[in-house]
Structure formats: C-alpha cells, structure tokens
Amino acid sequence: MDYNKIIQDLKKKIYHPVYILHGNEPFFIDKISDYIEDNVLDDSEKAFDQVVVYGKDIDVRTLMNSLKQYPSLGSHRVVIVKEAQDIRQIELLEEYFDKPMPSTILVISYKHKKLDKRKRFYKLASKNGVAFESKPIYDNQVPDWIKNYLKTQGYGITEKSALLLGEYLGNNLSKITNEINKMLINVSDKKTIDETDIESNIGISKDYNIFELQDALGSRNMVKVNRIVNYFNANQKDHPAVMVVAMLYTYFQKLFLYHFLTDKSKHGVASKIGVPVGLVYKYKHAAANYPTKKLSKIMHDLRVYDLKAKGLDNASTSSGGLLRELIFKITH
User: What is the pTM for the complete model shown?
Assistant: First the structure.
C-alpha cells in the first residue's frame, strides 16, 4: 500500500490493526504516524486509550501486554512505537502479528532502516495489517514533489523556483517542507511562488545560482558566466566548489546524452534526460554550442576538478581559483 492510499483510508476511518512503517525517508513515516496519533481518537479518549512509547524505553513482552488490553472508552486502543529500530528482538512481535487484537491499532515507526521483507515477522505484519516502506525520492523528482506539496497548500510555483528549491534543499523532505512552510507565512497574499519569494524568504539568489550559471554556459554568455563565478567565489560557503562541479557534471552529462537521442521531441527529451518539458529548448540550444567531442573533454575536466575540489592532487589552488580554471577550460 502506498502513502496516499494509507492517508486516504485513514481519513475514511478505515483502520488496520498493524502499521509497520519502515525505510530511509522519515518524512512519510512521521506523516502517517502523526495522523493516527492526532485523529483516530478524540482528546478524551486519548487520555485512556492512546499510548506513545519509544523503542529504547520498552521491551517486546511489555509492549505485547499493552497491545492485548481492551479500549476503555472508544472503539480502539492506539499504541504508537516511535524509534522502533531501538527495540531489542523486535522480531518477537510476530507472535502478536499472527493474531493481532482487532480493537488495537499498533503503529511501528522503524526509521532510517529497512526491515527484511523475507522474514516471517514482516510477512505476518503485511498479511494482517499494513506494511509500508518509506523510500527517499530521487533528486530529479524533487521539483515535482515540491509542486504537488504546494498544491495541497493552495499554492502554485514557477518551474524555475521549484528547481531552485530542489537543488539547494536536496531531497530531505522534512527540510523542504519546513522551509516552504516558513516561506508561506510571508507570502499568504500570493497564489504562485516565484524566484523573488525564494530569494526573500529562503536566501537563494534568483540571479546568482547554479541554474543561471548553467544557462549562461549553455548560451556561452561569458559576461554573465564571469559575473556568477565571481559571486560564487565571494560566497563560497553557500556555493562550495564541490557542489558546483557536481551540478555542472550532471548538466553537461545531459547535454552529452541529448546528442544521442533518437526522439528529440519535447516529451522524449524530457523523459530521457530528466528535465522539465518547459526547459527542453534550453538544452537543445546548449547542445548546439557543445559538440560531443568538446563535451567528452569537459566531462573529463569536471572529473579531474571534482577530485581537486575534494583536496586530491591539489596542493595550493584555492576553491575560487579552481572554479575559475574549470570555467576557462569549459569555455575554451
């Protein structure tokens, strides 16, 4: 069962006796667990029939005794185990999973790790309840995730703004939502988030960022390239050379792949190289400025400078000096 289906069922008051929530992305685990904690019982019922414990503070036998109690007031007893990865011998719960109490809702939040789906423990939980693996989303999925999240909050966002947020906040969904929620407090009178909002509230420059540098390199606008590189060098904490080199490698790799695509329609390109449809024209124009032979050399140079930026084979050149050297090699 996927995340959206679980939330939809919970909103319809379709409950299962066991929820095993595990995986490396804590965001979805927290969302499901928090929804159950906040909504299944009302405030008066929670005092008697809701138990929240942490894995390090409880053992399996004590937990099973709690699970087998009947609700005092409402129709359900809710037992939520947070940080369940700290429970010793958690597999012993399979005895309970085999015949769970219909009136008990057990939530196991097993974060930052995956459970072994081959074990009887997992199979019984899945058979008699819900087993959900919370997986991190890929970097190229982040902009669309941001759009969808903002849509649920009643906002839209420009394509470029979604890309900026995704690039600078990474794929940590909790961090992304925290930053977005803080921003929305200050833009409550708007319906569409743009680069100005991002710059004012999150601190990402709308003019001096990695996407503007990529665009400038793609169009070979050297005045703009040098202006952005100077800005990056003056603000190395926010624009470390390692990050800049990694992003440029991804960009030129996509240009290289573009040359070998048989389907160069907008949707074909967007699908194969992983960019929004609305930005395909930029890659098309940039590819025209960089033939495959030049791109091969650029990608070789980027690999070399990635190592130098990490301190290998680089005894004296500063981070700013490395970036200037690299940009010169790319553009000449």
Answer: 0.74
